[in-house]
Write a structure and sequence with these properties.
- It is a single chain.
- The chain has about 240 residues and is an alpha/beta fold.
- It has two domains: about 160 residues, P-loop containing nucleotide triphosphate hydrolases (Rossmann fold, 3-Layer(aba) Sandwich), CATH 3.40.50; about 70 residues.
- The protein contains nine helices and ten strands.
- The radius of gyration is 18 Å and the shape is globular.
- The protein starts with a strand and ends in a 5-residue tail after the last helix.
- The structure holds adenosine-5'-triphosphate (ATP).
- The site of adenosine-5'-triphosphate has 13 residues, from strand 2 and helix 1.
- It comes from Castellaniella hirudinis.
């Protein structure tokens, strides 16, 4: 039987006069890939920030495996198993790719040597082994996106929130990331929520898609249903 690993209940977020999330309710089923779409400013990143605790919601509950994580510090939420990538790739520019991943690996390693070894393995998974000694600032955008995913995986997440990692990438690079996301989901047991403006990409990998508009859920359903939804077409695709 499918069960929810993450349950978002009546989550509200407000910034001064702006009602950024309006009683948002949904479940992430364990093992699924849930795509998140919505126009600019719809509240997608705000939702992710609420889940990982960087900007906690003003009201509502977020249950991870039955435990309400609202109010917990981000590092504790990460330790429990919920991690996030950033919308803008956040790696340490002046460090090598290997060191970037090794720093994250230290959290779950007994020694520096063990962290470096885990980091090497992770770089290999993401196809970055040839760039281990390259400074992050010298990596092309696609490899920086992969590096951030590699860093996030060192937290051993059970739920990974992926915020627009495909922006600015070409079709081949997007397909490579999609393939890797499917593999961490299928082979490494990570449930995923993926924010993406690239609808074609999202439809390929998501079992369900959630559409946000003005902080509220427009619809949640199978990709083919959501892509036919009248308000999604109007709000997201901008068609009258
Ligand atoms: N910390 C904050 N303080 C004030 N306003 C914020 C804050 N975070 C987000 N907002 C506002 O909340 C609204 C939703 O922003 P959010 O970044 O969640 O949208 P989004 O759907 O992720 O958009 P995009 O696709 O452009 O990334 C926007 O109007 C934004 O300016």
């Amino acid at each position: 039987m499918s069960r929810a690993i993450l349950k978002v209940e009546n989550v509200d977020q407000r910034f001064a006069g702006l009602h950024a999330l309006k009683r948002v309710n949904f479940e992430l089923i364990e093992g699924e890939i849930l795509g998140i779409i919505g126009p600019n400013g719809a509240g997608k990143s705000t939702l992710f920030n609420a889940i990982v605790g960087t900007v906690p919601p003003v009201s509502g509950a977020i249950h991870f495996k039955g435990r309400n994580i609202v109010g917990m510090p981000t590092h504790q939420i990460a330790q429990l198993g919920v991690a996030k990538t950033s919308q803008t790739v956040q790696v340490f520019d002046e460090m090598t790719a290997l060191d970037n991943v090794a720093v994250a690996a230290l959290l779950n390693s007994a020694t520096v040597a063990a962290a470096r070894s885990a980091a090497r393995e992770e770089l290999e998974f993401w196809g970055l082994e040839g760039h281990a000694d390259t400074l992050a600032q010298d990596l092309p955008l696609a490899q920086r996106s992969l590096l951030e995913l590699a860093r996030a995986m060192m937290l051993h997440p059970q739920v990974l929130l992926v915020d627009e990692v495909m922006a600015g990438l070409n079709e081949v690079e997007v397909d490579d990331i999609l393939d890797k996301l499917v593999r961490i989901n299928r082979d490494r047991g990570v449930s995923l929520m993926v924010i993406e403006h690239n609808m074609r990409a999202l439809m390929k990998i998501s079992s369900q898609i959630l559409a946000l508009d003005y902080g509220a859920i427009l619809t949640l359903g199978k990709p083919e249903e959501v892509s036919r939804h009248k308000q999604v077409i109007e709000a997201y695709l901008g068609v009258e």
